Amino acid sequence: MAIITLKNGDKIGYDTQPYFIAEVNSSHNGNVETAKEMCKMAKESGCNCVKFQSWSSESLYSKSYYAKNPIAKRIVQKFSISPEDLKDIALYCKEIGIAFSSTPYCEAEVDFLVDECQAPFIKIASMEINNYDYLQYIAQKGLPVVLSTGMAEADEVRKAVKVIENAGNKQIILLHCISIYPAAPETIHLNNILWLKEEFPEYPIGFSDHTLGTEISAGAVALGACVIEKHFTLDKGKMGMDNNMAIEPAEMSQLTRNCVNVYKSLGSKERIVSEAEYKQRENMRRSVVAAHDLKAGCILTKNDLILKRPGTGIPADKIDSVTGKKLNKDVEFDTLIFEEDLI
């Protein structure tokens, strides 16, 4: 089974509990103290990692785009965090015991995350899946790569994985993702997780969840998702680029708890009866019981026998072996018949 060890020692794979990434995105509103509070609350909510966006107005959009959308540059600047502040947040995350990562949008941002923030993995946004030179640059850093697959056709996913592999990196975690914000349940196609598992059996598969609520993530875990990435906010009522689709700490706690419980419930494909269930047989299964008062020496027929709880006597599936046998003692109506009562 596929398992990837992150730079900080955390393991991601099918034999470990789901790895939870709280996607902060822009919900910090450019405020470092808010960002740190989000890191703290993400940890308390059961998340393994808190992830930011390393974008800047220069690395994300072109001058042509800003010319047509002049307000966009101000929005990006408002919701960006400087490299110095990102490093400060990364140090804070280390202090409180939660992994820090961020999605970079240029080579300089990649270098900063690796060299200054000691990110345990590099997250590649869905928009970069056909940016092959950039994929190669990230792959050559030698860190595990978490690749979102939103908007990508099957061949594009295959090509992106091959580019990363050819750059010498086989530490890949693929996230099923639908790049709609928010995404309605009928657009999610969780069964794509099964396709990714079949197509890339050597790599763990996860889910980047852009739906409202928490239940879809649990469904992803049931299908084998090893990573759950979910947008996170302290207050979805506040203004923000994605606050309306993010979940608050109480909901994140519910999501992580539900996903872990689903993971624990999956168990084995093999049919296994636990010791606890074996004990339940004594209370819940039926045994052979006298259908009326029976005298010693009588030859038993089906009419002399009924089946009732508890299951501590002759089992129900052995009733045919009792017929034709002789009783060596009287047996009262509605009481168990035991093997030692038979001749």
From TrEMBL:
It comes from the Bacteria. One of its GO terms (biological process) is carbohydrate biosynthetic process. GO terms for molecular function: N-acylneuraminate-9-phosphate synthase activity. Residues 287-343 form the AFP-like domain. This is N-acetylneuraminate synthase family protein. It comes from Candidatus Limenecus avicola. The lineage of its organism: Bacteria, Bacillati, Bacillota, Clostridia, Eubacteriales.
